[in-house]
Write a structure and sequence with these properties.
The chain has 136 residues and is α+β, with helices and mostly antiparallel strands. It has a single domain, classed as Alpha-Beta Plaits (2-Layer Sandwich). 30% of the residues lie in helices and 40% in strands. The chain is built from 4 helices and 7 strands, in the order E-E-E-H-E-H-E-E-H-H-E. It has helices at 32-40, 58-72, 102-108, 112-121; strands at 3-10, 14-22, 25-28, 45-53, 78-85, 92-99, 125-132. It has a 4-stranded antiparallel beta sheet with strand order 5-6-4-7. A hairpin with a 3-residue loop joins strand 1 and strand 2. The radius of gyration is 14 Å and the shape is globular. The relative contact order is 0.26.
């Protein structure tokens, strides 16, 4: 099963890069260098991840995400990592992340806890959207 994830990179211009998370492997449809150059324009990287769990899978997904958060905040490049849940729809879960720079995010995406977390998240979700955010 493939989960479509959308990464929107915001800098001086708006770029969109669609990625697919499949079995814990990240496949990028455009060159990493293109994405990284847009992200490098920011001094830090902010992500907003939106997950839609399958009904009845919310508790298990939250446990996986809490474990991933606990390991991620221990990384030197993690500024913050917050979890949230929609008050109107408990199947919608949010992750708000801030990394010191694009290199810290790339390092995070190669850790064993990230890769195993992605593999556990996939069967629990119908949708995973990953957005780079340029806060105004």
């Amino acid at each position: 099963m493939e989960i479509l994830a959308i990464r929107v990179i915001a800098s001086a211009k708006k770029y969109a890069d669609t990625i697919t998370l499949n079995a814990g492997v990240r496949k990028v449809s455009s060159p990493d260098a293109y994405r990284d150059s847009a992200m490098a324009a920011q001094e830090h990287v902010d992500l907003l991840v939106v997950l839609h769990s399958h009904p009845g899978q919310e508790q298990e997904l939250n446990q996986v995400l809490e474990n991933l958060r606990d390991a991620s905040v221990a990384e030197p490049g993690c500024v913050h990592y917050r979890l949230g849940q929609s008050s109107s729809n408990p199947t919608v879960i949010f992750i708000q992340e801030r990394w010191v720079d694009a290199a810290a995010l790339r390092d995070h995406e190669t850790t064993s806890h990230f890769l195993s977390g992605v593999a556990k998240i996939q069967p629990l979700c119908s949708v995973v959207q990953i957005h780079n955010v340029d806060w105004k």
